[in-house]
Amino acid sequence: MATDYLEITDLTVSFDGFIAVDTVNLTVLKSDLRFLIGPNGAGKTTIIDAISGLVPSTGSIEFAGNHLQGKKVHKIARLGVGRTFQTSTVFEDLTVLQNLDIAAGAHRTPLTLLRRRSAVPEEVTAALETIGLTGQIDTLAGVLSHGQKQWLEIGMLLVQNAQLLLLDEPVAGMSHDERNATGELLQRISTERTVVIVEHDMDFMRSFAKSVTVLAAGKVLSEGSVAEVQADPRVQAVYLGTAAAAPTGAEI
Amino acid sequence: MKFLTSSRFSAFVPFLLAAVVLFVLAPGILSDFRLNLLARYLCFAIVAVGIGLAWGSGGMLTLGQGVFFGLGAYAMGLHMKLDDAGPGRAPDYMPPTTDWLPGWIEMFRSGPITIAAIVLLPAAVALVLGLATFKRKVRGAYFAILSQALAAAFALLIIVLGSQSGNYTNGTNGLSNFRSFFGYDLNDPVNQRMLFYLAAGFLLVMVFIARQLRNSRYGELLRACQSSEERVRFLGYDPANVKVVAYVIAAAMAGIGGALFVPIVGIITPMDVGVAPSIAMLIGVAIGGRGTLWGPVIGAVGVAWAQSTLSEQFPAFWTYVQGALFIVVIAFLPGGLASLGSVIRNARGWWDDKRGRPAEPPVAVTDDLKTDVGSRV
Amino acid sequence: MDVVVSQIFTGLSIGSILLLAAIGLALTFGQMGVINMAHGEFIMAGGYTAFVVQGLFENAGVGLLLSIPVAFLVGGLLGVILEMTLLRRMYHRPLDTLLVTYGVSLILQQLAKTIFGTQGKSVETPTWLQGPIELFGFDFPKTRVFVLVLAVVTVVGLSMLLKATSLGRRIRATVQNRQLAECSGISTRSTDRLTFFVGSGLAGIAGVALTQLAPVNASVGQAYIINAFLVVVVGGIGQIKGAVIAAFVLGIGQAALEKIYDASLARILIFVAIVLFLQLRPQGIFNVRTRSLA
Prior knowledge:
The complex is a heterotrimer. Chain A is an alpha/beta fold. Chain A has ten helices and ten strands. Helix content of chain A is 33%, strand content 23%. In chain A, β7, α7 and β8 (194-198) form a beta-alpha-beta unit. In chain A, α3 runs parallel beside α6 (146-159) and α5 (122-131) packs antiparallel against α6. Residues 241-252 of chain A have low confidence and may be disordered. By secondary structure, chain C is mostly helical. Chain C has one domain (2-280). The radius of gyration of chain C is 19 Å and the shape is globular.
């Protein structure tokens, strides 16, 4: 499974002539936990959108030996690419179990789909354990707390058996303890998978990132470990640490 | 396991009740005339079961069920007219000189082909329109408007086919004056009763199918599509396929309802299949509770009963009632009568809540329309 | 050549009617997301307004011209009443607005039948609109030219309203980002009401125009509402120019098809063409890009 990694070459995304992502090269290996950071409009979410097939792009996106570009969103998902969104999008009218069961079932045959669920699938039980929602198995997802919804989303990625996880601000709005729990969960998950996280929370990033890519104005500015990136003067100039140098649009 | 078996049993109680009402009580109490009226309402209830599936579970506001109802009805009507005319002869409404019929009319001479067409024609039309729209992520309001335009176009098509020299559909007059139904004399009250049992039986089968679908994994997936189609897509499903299945089944059910309508009522015209009757088919579903299994059935029978009771004597008054029902139910009781209990329970809390709070803030473009815009980029 | 010119004129004429019927929808449906099926009955109300107003004046021309602003007010008021009583609680359920407003449309139609009877009411054509007018060496009915001019004036007026006035800026701001608009001190409630007033008022004007082509009756709205919505769908939401192009393309298309087939078949073919068109451009001719998802 040496090919189980994400390789992006010369990725460019433009909206009506505005170049949101400009010839980005990115390689994320299996068991990496890569954070994408950068000021607003740097193209972080757009890169995730391009990988998951939401926006058209040029260049090349390859994961586990498959070219993803030009494929439809659900076909890309079937190749083991899972993602979350800035605002959590669980199925609010369905229970936690139903949410997870749907996520686990993309490869079910029509005949299986037309039958009633006879037992809780094994991977769903395992995921419930991992995300700590075993007690809420029959709760409607709509009444979960914000943090629980985010975890449910991660649980859905797990049962989906995604090998490449793209998470868009997974800890936004979470309490400090919830953040830590989520970070540890993500670290555990990442040992067997490739994980890419878009994040604005610098503390969270410093605590849990295995590697970091800094983007600015659609280009890769710097890449490396947290320490390397923080030491990079270009990063300091546009974004991190030194508040005096922070341009408008930078957060935190 | 014991819980499971008992809950399964209790789920069949409504079926048992419905069967007793339809097969024992109604035929025992009602006159032949009333029974025939009830049979007519049951035809609309069959359509309503399908709408409950497509609209209630799948969120597809289908304003064109009259088209599928009409396809089933005209297939059956043509068969009965051809049957009445006798082998090799044209139906009585066509010009007397007609000595040749096109293949698409001639095929309805065959009973088996007609029965297949009643299900397959609506299903095929729904499949084509469903794939053409859902695959291109045309949905929400756009789908509703297109399905309504389809109803308008279909009613016109029936009229056009009747206005040409062959007079294949008898235009605005529609098909009527049937004498027999698959060899059974329609003037015989016994056969009219048989038609009632047929409609009742089909209704129970349709509700059973809907129940199985709703409780299956597919049913959960369908509701997930209503909740967030995009999310379903990112889990590796094509929501277009999920939705089109429900839409096609709803269309087939409407076709069956239409096909039974013709021998029971004895007439089918373009007026029964156009824009207005198509929307009217929704109101019963909304009143009964679009998201429930039995709500659409009860609502459709209730509305059809109210309509035939009121509109015969006061047609204008019925229009006001119908309009008011749409407004009151959809605006103030979107869950239908099925949700009345919880609405009343919440009423007190809501009243207390409302005191210190401004009116609901308008959020112009959210929910379906917003996902529309987003995904249509 | 004669045929081509007269066909194009017929097409533009049909297109201008579609445009008048649809332009208000482009505002209420396209910009606010409300699917107002009663829009057709606001058109009807405009027609009856012309009938009533004209009855008050000796001079048919004065009555007709005066009925244009009055019909705008009548349509607009009906729209505001609808918005304030029902729609404002339903902005988060756009699909349901379709059914609620359909109920309203049923009631308005029946009211019109009760008040004005089922027979169509003719609105007199003033002498200066009677007969043909010669343009480029061809004769065209003056009434159709009047409708065409009215459509163009209405669209230009609306575009100027949206571009150049503070109300227009408020409408556009609210549509593009409601929360931000609210934060910037715009009362989105009153903007919604005003948008609905203008959109519904335009239906009233359309109603006046239609009286010059046929007597007004209770079902005139039904005849136009579906095609008007199709114009907005094909045009793409959020854009007035999309509706303009769609209306005239559909108008010319329908005129051409009616020349070859009969009117009913033409409408069926137009429907098929629209479904096929949406295969190529599901978002319509124009649309506003958003980055929102879910």
